Amino acid sequence: MVYDPVIGSSGTMTIDQLHDGLVITTLDEVQYSESTPFTWVIADSIVGDNYYGISCKGVTESFVITVTPSARDMDYVQKDQMIINLNANGRTNNESLLSRQKWQYTYNNKTEDCILNNFNWHTNGWNTDSEGKSYLKISDGASV
Prior knowledge:
This protein has one helix at 97-100, and strands at residues 12-19, 22-31, 48-56, 59-67, 102-107, 110-115, 125-128, 134-137. It is mainly beta. It folds into two domains: 12-67; 79-137, no CATH class. The strands form three sheets. The protein has a four-stranded antiparallel beta sheet, with no helix packed on it. Strands 5-6 form a two-stranded antiparallel sheet. Strands 7-8 form a two-stranded antiparallel ribbon. The longest helix is centred in the C-terminal third of the chain and has 4 residues, at 97-100.
């Protein structure tokens, strides 16, 4: 929590979010609120120690997030072993809600729908990787 005792709960403040000592985001006119805290979603950490901080008026609180590698084997399935092949090309969270909640696939000349459940479309859903390819991030209780 960031609190500026000079402005108390009635004013706004500027907050810098830091990664490896560098400002990655500056939030202007942030209103302090105990009832509605501001959350910072960190989704781009690498395996190992990741150094973050929050700074306001020259006071910085630093913290480390240690990411461990997943034990899950994420290698692609061989095509001859595949039952369905869902293609994420061109998909985004900017689609209409009805459209982004549905994923169709065709198998043995039959089209089926996959329904995407419990996605919040902020920390999960359709994303784009560093090469510009779309993918579906399933997390936070979401399912297909």
